[in-house]
Design brief:
Strand content: 25-35%
Number of helices: 4
Number of domains: 1
Helix content: 10-25%
Mean pLDDT: 86
Shape: globular
Structural class: alpha/beta
CATH class: Alpha Beta
Low-confidence stretches: 1-6
Radius of gyration: 17 Å
CATH architecture: 4-Layer Sandwich
Number of strands: 16
Oligomer: single chain
Order of helices and strands: EEEEHHEHEHEEEEEEEEEE
Length: 229
């Protein structure tokens, strides 16, 4: 039995208390809701590299397999029953090409008992919903889930703690030798938690984070912080 399912924290994770529930921030750039055996990730951007290559831009290959392998590892570690993608699962219409979809289909077949939910994001609107063979339930934001509102776009809303993505948040930590480290982070303000981008080829931003946010940087296999913006 997973230590997470025993309500213990996974190594390097950090627990938040929401109402009478718990939400764990995982160093794998995901959030884990133990009570409902549900994983939340945001901004996977499957097929982004393929989209760039379709425009003739030389970018690395293998990012789709990287993303899918990391998702599988988290599902296995947590013994998750449900995966909720908080928007931007597919990057753009080239992600619907067979060479991309076939990889995702093989991943999905290997996790046939996993319930998958996609909250539509702005890139999903351009890419189109995942094909039926991937067996995703597709919903619009906000989608109520217990004490949470599953969204893509940030912004506090009545009815629960908003879980969102979209911003690809990061923060710069400064060391004693004037060194700097830019790390992806979870970003929290009253009423909302913004997840870091999960995708391996997404980039991060230091700008546009909500004023007064509390950030939990992710680095060296652990969730650090909290750090104020």
């Amino acid at each position: 039995m997973s230590t997470i399912l025993n309500s213990r924290l996974a190594p390097g994770a950090r627990r938040l208390h929401v109402a009478d529930d718990a939400l764990d921030l995982l160093p794998g750039l995901a959030a884990w809701w133990p009570a409902q055996r549900t994983l939340f990730v945001a901004d996977v951007h499957i097929g982004k590299a393929a989209s760039f290559r379709a425009l003739g831009q030389p970018v690395p290959s293998g990012t789709t397999q990287n993303n899918l392998h990391r998702l599988s590892a988290l599902v296995t570690e947590c013994e998750a029953q449900r995966l909720v993608v908080l928007g931007d699962f597919l990057h753009a219409s080239p992600a619907q090409q067979p060479q991309v979809v076939d990889q995702v289909k093989a991943w999905r077949d290997g996790l046939s008992q996993l319930d998958c939910v996609l909250v539509r994001g702005n890139h999903d609107s351009h890419a189109g919903d995942p094909p039926p063979s991937l067996r995703f339930q597709v919903v619009d934001e906000p989608s109520p889930m217990g004490p949470f509102l599953a969204c893509h776009h940030p912004g506090a809303r009545p009815g629960g703690l908003v879980l969102a993505g979209h911003l690809h948040p990061a923060i710069t930590l400064r060391g004693p030798a004037h060194d700097r480290h830019r790390l992806p982070c979870f970003c929290m303000t009253p009423g909302q938690l913004i997840l870091p981008a999960f995708g391996a080829f997404t980039g991060t931003t230091l700008h546009g984070l909500p004023p007064g946010a509390t950030c939990y940087p992710v680095g060296a296999g652990q969730v650090l912080g909290p750090v104020g913006v």
